[in-house]
Design brief:
Distance between the termini: 25 Å
Strand content: 5-15%
Largest sheet: 3 strands, antiparallel
Oligomer: single chain
Helix content: 40-55%
Length: about 170
């Protein structure tokens, strides 16, 4: 993969966003969800309640087919991510009803980030980069991060290894 500058949020910045109001609540809800799960916008948009499972041994699992790769995924997700979804609805209802991608929503995303006091060019896809970076920062091994992101090739995930300056400093 070609190297690009991948903007992401630190844990502190993500917490600022959580505490900051967004003019489009579904945008905030889904962006935070994506930051906690690593899911792409296309996958978040297509998820239905029937994709969410709970079992006492493994906790919460999202079972879905990735839009981009068509790979079938079983993604463990946190209780915190599930709480963002609110009250359970019928199986065929989308988790994020009326979520759309548009220039208007991009402007609202940028305004929300600015209102939180964050001076970065954050896009919706930055939520996925945030997830990957936070996982690596918190010592999740790169192979596991790769599997959580649904990458088919570890090389794709290795791009995130370059953005962790703190790791370099600690080493």
């Amino acid at each position: 993969e070609k190297e690009t500058n991948r903007e992401y949020l630190t844990l502190e910045e993500l917490q600022k966003l959580v505490k900051t109001e967004c003019e489009v609540p579904i945008l905030k809800q889904s962006f935070i969800f994506s930051s906690l799960t690593g899911l792409r916008f296309s996958d978040v948009k297509s998820l239905k309640w029937k994709n969410l499972y709970y079992d006492s041994e493994n906790g919460w699992i999202l079972k879905y087919t990735q839009q981009k790769t068509k790979g079938v995924e079983n993604l463990p997700i946190s209780e915190q991510a599930v709480k963002l979804l609110g009250e359970k609805k019928d199986d065929d209802v989308l988790l994020f009803e009326n979520l759309t991608y548009s220039a208007y929503h991009n402007k609202k995303l940028h305004k929300w980030v600015k209102d939180a006091g964050i001076d970065k060019h954050i896009t919706y896809h930055s939520s996925r980069h945030t997830f990957a970076t936070l996982q690596l920062t918190m010592d999740t091994d790169i192979y596991t991060v790769s599997k959580l992101l649904g990458h088919r090739n570890l090389k794709t995930t290795e791009i995130y290894g370059k953005v962790i300056d703190k790791k370099k400093i600690d080493a």
